[in-house]
Amino acid sequence: xxxxxxxxxxxxxxxxxxxxxxxxxxxxxxxxxxxxxxxxxxxxxxxxxxxxxxxxxxxxxxxxxxxxxxxxxxxxxxxxxxxxxxxxxxxxxxxxxxxxxxxxxxxxxx
Length: 110
Description:
Largest sheet: 4 strands, antiparallel
Shape: globular
Strand order of the largest sheet: 1-8-3-6
Strand content: 35-45%
Oligomer: single chain
Radius of gyration: 13 Å
Structural class: mainly beta
């Protein structure tokens, strides 16, 4: 397991709808493939139109989803974004901007 994962538990992953229902062994495998990321307020985590090959799960903090410069959603603990990039859409559909100090995990297409 990656050293970056201190403090992120299977329970935190399972709280996200994308991993709901996975057993402990499956959650362990997911954790081994993910990376821990920190973000500060104002950081663009993803930018509309840019390429991407990972999804993000919010462990703590909040972010805004902005499409064409307008806020369309607010994301918080347990929310997932960027999942379309794993399904073959390699260009981001919106900006996601941190609105507080955040902790996230990312999972790449690999």
